[in-house]
Amino acid sequence: MKQPRVYLSHLNDPFVNLALEEWLVRRHDAEQMILLIYRNSPAVVIGRNQNPWLEHSPQACQASGAVLARRVSGGG
């Protein structure tokens, strides 16, 4: 087994962090263990198969300043 890799993002942008997550998954082979640690500003992150109209409240997001972002992976 290869040495695990740990990445730490100092950015709070959920769109950048999700893009970084996708890039890491696509870049590393299946045998490579990776861990990405990040903390987002207020956001609702849904998986690719989730319905945004059922999973969040647009009014609550707008009132709190949260953004809606979609993760390319299934989420969970």
Put the structure in a nutshell.
With 76 residues, this protein is α/β, with parallel strands linked by helices. The chain has three helices and four strands. It has helices spanning 14-27, 52-55, 58-64; strands at residues 5-8, 34-37, 43-46, 67-70.
Question: Could you please describe the fold and organization of this structure?
Answer:
The chain has 76 residues and is an alpha/beta fold. Helix content is 33%, strand content 21%. The chain is built from 3 helices and 4 strands; from the N terminus they run βαββααβ. The strands form 2 sheets. A two-stranded parallel sheet has the order 1-2. The protein is elongated, with a radius of gyration of 14 Å. The two termini are 26 Å apart.
Distance between the termini: 26 Å
Q: Give the overall shape, derived from the CA principal axes.
A: elongated
What radius of gyration results from the CA coordinates? 14 Å
Instruction: Specify the biggest β-sheet.
Output: 2 strands, parallel
* Low-pLDDT runs: none
Overall helicity:
25-40%
Question: β content, as a range?
Answer: 15-25%
Count of beta strands: 4
Protein traits:
two-stranded parallel ribbon, alpha/beta, elongated, 76 residues
Topology:
Elements: E1 5-8, H1 14-27, E2 34-37, E3 43-46, H2 52-55, H3 58-64, E4 67-70
Parallel strand pairs: 1-2, 3-4
